[in-house]
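In this section we walk through a basic example: taking a raw amino acid sequence and producing a predicted 3D structure, encoded as discrete structure tokens. The instruction is simple. Fold the sequence below.
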Amino acid sequence: MSGIKWMLPIGPQQCAERDQSIACSFQLYSNASTLTETQKLAPNNDITGDAVRLLRQVIKAFIVSNAFALLFSAILLWDRFQWHFLIHNYSDTRLYLRTIHVVQRLLHGLSDHQLVSGLALLVTLNNQACSISAYHYNLACTMLILSAVTHFNSLFSIQDYIHKGRVVAGIRIVAIIVQYVLSAIVLSGRNVKTGFPTKPGSLGIMPAPCFWNTTTSGYWGVRDALDAASLGDKDTTGNATATDTGIETVATSAAFWEYIMLVVFSGFACVFLVAEWIHTSKHGRNIVVKSKLIASSSSLRFTYNTNISAPAWRSQRGTSSEPLRGKAGAIRNL
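The resulting token sequence is shown next.
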């Protein structure tokens, strides 16, 4: 069972207790020109591969995936405005609706890919808790942020998660929540008042446990945010005294604001999920509701089987603009 125990964040003392002693030689790594070949940064095959070229490909893959997720979510958001404000005929929108359906599937595919990659990355970080360098830890945190953004974009089609296969939807949502929580713990470990090395430099070669905030896992870093806002005197880190200067260091660090960004994304995700659940509970799955900015696709897509027969649909095409909007929405699942 010890192999699956969550250990992040961890300090040098806890690593020593697990027979993985690490040396935090700040004086040695303060000047990169004095380092020997064995002391320089070694590739981390489990995170970035064994070559600089492969590292660039990994980072590009995460960035491209995130960019496509942003594009697809923007298309779906525009689609909701489109069906809210405009009236369409079935004959004019069949290809359009099929295209939107494909975009939804592509967005779900990207989310599933990032879910597998993100969870695998978290497992790797946990297994390398005492050996990973600060540099590779920063790269992993950046990739986790990109993965979280992809999941957030997939919420624009959350109704498909809920209405198409409740078991699969439940597994997806639970897995995303687990990834968000563990990612928050990983990112909050860099909220240290002595400063985590996020910029290029020789200190990034040192083991990450030399810098980690070892007391944030119980609060997911929320206390650091409160301290940064109030400049209180609470000691929230095992690495330094929580002075006003130290708190200001946390509040102005890039690592801290990456963590805050993840918290904000999580908050939006929770609001979106609750809103969708309330809407579904109120209207049900088979009730025709006029197109709305947020709820149109979730309520209209189920009208075909329950409210109108195929012959009636064909005979009424072009006779009424408002019913046609519901009928067109019914083929979104083709």
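Looking at the output, two observations stand out. Residues 51-284 form one domain. The mean pLDDT is 67. In the next section we compare this with other chains.
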